[in-house]
Write a sequence for this structure.
């Protein structure tokens, strides 16, 4: 089992345990450990933490020195996120991982080529993009989500060949992702239903 | 404004859903300007009407990442951290992390908490928008389990070096005094609980924890069945050492009762 699958399964088990066992005890803990022996330590730690909480006298106030150390860790995490490998275009990012055409990227990410092209030209409203789209594209292109998000925040562009002047004109209007899905004739009905099911 | 749905799914394939009051709060506060939003984020009392719930705060933090609004990301993250820094440490201690490892473990949890919430390529942080403190307890438990394994290895190494012998010898002497009766008592409530808290506060943390689990929740000291949880396995100590701890706890509590004339 890969680390990621194992981690996802552990998350799922702990979350299911929290939902199913609002008042844990020794008997329920033992039952769950017998079902998931590989997660015995995690289930035990979670249970013990909940069982002993009512008996603890909570100290007043906050440990300022500990808080400062935590703030440093948090800023480190946020700081690392801000230095993503920049993406110059989706098609270039695709080529780097062997997806040599927009169509290939679209197939891998369960989209149409037309939608990928619109995303490539920043023609979609970032606020309308579902989280699942980021997941699909980060997996397909093997790039960080932050790099992808930074790319989508770029200025919208006109498609190549659709303008005559030397400078590419800028577009200010961007399209809602779900509206684009709804209108895209090249998506299969299954794809359309899938993406529209993610609409808030 | 539309609220971005959660991507994560349960084991049954059902999508995660925020609780109704979280969704209402997101809807209500989405139109606020940053200063007003941050003012509410700074109110840490969950029951205060103007305060942002932690689940809502996690949502706005992730949305600020989507929008590339770094200043807002930093400020919302700091408010969220101030609300949960102390909780993380308390949880880890309760879950059995030693004082010596507490700082490292807490920083691991904080790193993962924010790493998951702001990682737009993953749905791992979605549970924080559903039940923030349960998600935090789950994250702490995963971290605590890692440190408990480390602590058990450290304890085993100490025992091999012979440093644990004195305690084990003492255990031998005290073992016959341990009552074999069923120790399960209902956990106290109300005034009794307040009194018990004070009494238990006189015990060392690891002994207090072993005593509570044995006395109120019937955790066995040892078992022939390796698949059941035991205090001996949890603490990485021999059953004799655990019995010694329990006896010391009973002695100390008896002394406390006589001094307090209870």
């Amino acid at each position: 089992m890969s680390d990621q699958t194992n981690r996802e399964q552990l998350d799922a088990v702990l979350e299911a345990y929290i939902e199913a066992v609002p008042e844990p005890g020794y008997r329920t803990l033992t039952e769950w450990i017998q079902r998931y022996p590989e997660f015995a330590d995690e289930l035990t730690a979670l249970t013990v933490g909940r069982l002993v909480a009512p008996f603890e006298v909570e100290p007043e106030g906050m440990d300022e020195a500990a808080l400062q150390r935590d703030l440093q860790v948090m800023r480190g995490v946020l700081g690392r996120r801000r230095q993503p490998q920049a993406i110059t275009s989706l098609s270039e990012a695709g080529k780097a991982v062997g997806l040599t055409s927009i169509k290939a990227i679209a197939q891998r990410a369960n989209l149409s080529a037309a939608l990928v092209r619109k995303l490539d030209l920043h023609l979609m409203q970032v606020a309308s993009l579902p989280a699942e789209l980021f997941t699909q594209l980060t997996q397909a292109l093997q790039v960080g989500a932050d790099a992808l998000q930074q790319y989508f925040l770029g200025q919208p562009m006109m498609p190549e060949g659709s303008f005559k002047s030397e400078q590419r004109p800028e577009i200010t209007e961007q399209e809602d992702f779900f509206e684009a899905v709804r209108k895209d004739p090249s998506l299969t009905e299954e794809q359309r239903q899938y993406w529209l099911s993610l609409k808030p | 404004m539309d609220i971005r749905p959660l991507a994560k799914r349960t084991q049954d394939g059902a999508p995660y859903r925020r609780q109704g009051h979280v969704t209402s709060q997101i809807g209500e506060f989405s139109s606020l300007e940053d200063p007003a939003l941050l003012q509410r984020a700074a109110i840490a009392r969950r029951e205060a009407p103007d305060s942002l719930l932690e689940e809502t705060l996690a949502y706005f933090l992730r949305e600020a990442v989507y929008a590339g609004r770094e200043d807002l990301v930093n400020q919302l993250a700091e408010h969220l951290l101030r609300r949960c820094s102390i909780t993380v440490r308390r949880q880890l201690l309760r879950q059995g992390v030693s004082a010596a490892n507490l700082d490292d473990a807490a920083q691991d949890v904080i790193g993962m908490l924010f790493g998951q919430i702001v990682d737009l390529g993953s749905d791992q942080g979605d549970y924080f928008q559903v039940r923030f403190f349960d998600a935090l307890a789950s994250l702490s438990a995963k971290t605590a389990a890692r440190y408990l394994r480390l602590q058990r290895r450290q304890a085993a190494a100490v025992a091999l070096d012979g440093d644990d012998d004195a305690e084990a010898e003492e255990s031998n002497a005290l073992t016959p005094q341990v009552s074999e009766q069923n120790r399960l008592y209902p956990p106290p409530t109300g005034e009794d609980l307040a009194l018990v808290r004070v009494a238990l506060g006189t015990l060392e943390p690891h002994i207090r924890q072993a005593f509570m689990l044995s006395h109120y929740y019937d955790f066995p000291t040892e078992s022939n069945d390796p698949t059941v949880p035991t205090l001996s396995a949890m603490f990485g100590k021999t059953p004799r050492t655990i019995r010694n701890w329990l006896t010391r706890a009973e002695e100390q509590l008896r002394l406390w009762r006589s001094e307090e004339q209870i």
User: Anything to note?
Assistant: The mean pLDDT of chain A is 85. The radius of gyration of chain A is 24 Å.
